[in-house]
């Protein structure tokens, strides 16, 4: 049977360098943030993408992280650092 992993010549692609994708069903965008929550305290946090994938967090693309809604009575804290106004942008 064939392998579904991409190959480069005779070498297999390193799965560690594959970008993580958004956890939202149907979204195939690259993840840029990690959402975690504490059910008991009814709190949700959005942080920069956690370097290590964890079952305790949900990786989200920028659009889903920005538009994430929480249930009534829950708090939502976005702890991502805002972009610096001095960063260079390629045009």
Protein model, in words:
The chain is mainly beta. It has a domain at 15-74. The protein is built from one helix and six strands. The chain has one helix at 62-66, and strands spanning 7-8, 11-12, 33-38, 43-48, 58-60, 75-78. The strands form two sheets. It has a four-stranded mixed beta sheet. Strands 1-2 form a two-stranded antiparallel sheet.
Concise summary:
With 91 residues, the chain is mainly beta. The protein contains one helix and six strands; from the N terminus they run E-E-E-E-E-H-E.
Average pLDDT figure: 83
Structural class category: mainly beta
Rg from alpha-carbon coordinates:
17 Å
Instruction: Tell me the series of helices and strands, N- to C-terminal.
Output: EEEEEHE
State the strand order across the main sheet: 5-3-4-6
Q: State the low-pLDDT regions, or none.
A: 1-8
Q: Report the strand count.
A: 6
Silhouette:
globular
| Main β-sheet description | 4 strands, mixed
Helix tally equals 1
Roughly what fraction of the amino acids lie in strands?
A: 25-35%
Helix content: under 10%
Beginning-to-end CA distance, first to last residue: 46 Å
């Amino acid at each position: 049977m064939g392998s579904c992993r991409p190959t480069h010549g005779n070498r297999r692609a390193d799965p560690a360098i594959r970008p993580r994708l958004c956890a939202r069903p149907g979204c195939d965008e690259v993840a840029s943030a990690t959402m975690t929550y504490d059910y008991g305290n009814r709190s949700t946090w959005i942080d920069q993408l956690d370097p290590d994938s964890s079952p305790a967090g949900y990786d989200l693309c920028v659009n889903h992280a920005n538009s994430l809604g929480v249930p009534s009575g829950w708090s939502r804290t976005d702890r991502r650092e805002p972009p610096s106004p001095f960063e260079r942008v390629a045009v």
